[in-house]
Design goal:
single chain; mainly alpha
Length: about 270
């Protein structure tokens, strides 16, 4: 069944479009955030008005922290507090994987071939996880290549240990796989592609709104507000010091993925196909 689910993902136009949009959006984000904005802020693209350089949001690639932020496979502007194109593409790829059978009627054939619905969900989750890992690997290569290329052009040294670079990219790939599976679970729960897309986007946007309101009221981000998908992903990748610790973020994201799959399993078992 895993091979069949992988075949669905690799031959469906919607999945290919989501991956292409995500990769293209990530490339654009990385070039803008890692290459162009720092060059504008430093004046390498020519003179800019006094005081404007301080207003340009750019990474300080001369520091280890700035280079770590640029390494995120979700984009230098991704993670908690923002919603990047790469994140949207990843979760929507999962949603499309979960709703494809319902849209085209393949769920009936799948259930006839395999009456055990838990096995159906397991195969779909495994396929989505594999797709997420492959997508994450592609995104990691894009982020690393953009950073290293920019450092080479500007003559800046790499301020981050190679082992730390590998660890950040590996955690980013794992986070992307988890987000893909969460999207799959939402798609199975919604069944309708339009409803699944709207629900998934609503969850992500609501997280940003809730975090902003919580910070305005409390003055800092409460722990409960850090247990949401984007915040957990950002903390797991570990490109900033803010947020939960790495073990807590890993536990939280895996738990969130497991909860989403459990809800999808209950719904898949109880309702008619």
């Amino acid at each position: 069944m895993l091979r069949a689910e992988l075949l669905k993902l690799t031959t469906t136009s919607a999945s290919k479009i989501a991956l292409g949009v995500g990769a293209g959006g990530l490339i654009l984000t990385q070039i803008t955030s890692v290459t162009m904005l720092p060059a504008l802020a430093s004046g390498r693209f020519g003179s800019i008005p006094d005081g404007l350089a301080d207003e340009i949001p750019s990474l300080d690639l001369a520091t280890a922290g700035g280079q770590l932020a640029a390494l995120s496979p979700l984009g230098a502007s991704g993670g908690s507090g923002s919603l990047g194109i790469a994140v949207i593409a990843i979760v929507l790829m999962g949603v499309l994987a979960g709703t494809g059978d319902y849209r085209f009627g393949g769920i009936v054939t799948t259930a006839l071939a395999q009456p055990n619905r838990i096995r159906i969900l397991t195969a779909k989750a495994a396929a989505a996880g594999v797709a997420g890992l492959v997508t994450g690997a592609v995104f990691a290569v894009v982020s690393a290549a953009t950073l290293l290329g920019t450092l080479a052009i500007t003559g800046m040294p790499v301020a981050v240990e190679p082992s730390i670079i590998v660890a950040v990219l590996a955690r980013g790939v794992l986070a992307i796989a988890c987000l893909t599976i969460v999207g799959l679970a939402v798609g199975i729960l919604a069944r309708s592609q339009l409803a699944g897309v709207l629900v998934m986007l609503g969850i992500l946007i609501l997280e940003l709104v809730v975090q902003s309101i919580a910070q305005l009221i409390v003055g800092s981000l409460p722990v409960w507000a850090q247990l949401m998908p984007l915040a957990l992903t950002d903390a797991l990748i570990g490109t900033s010091e803010a947020g939960l610790s790495l073990p807590a973020a890993l536990t939280g994201l895996l738990s969130l993925t497991a909860i989403a799959l459990t809800l999808a399993a209950v719904a898949l078992r109880r309702r008619d196909i």
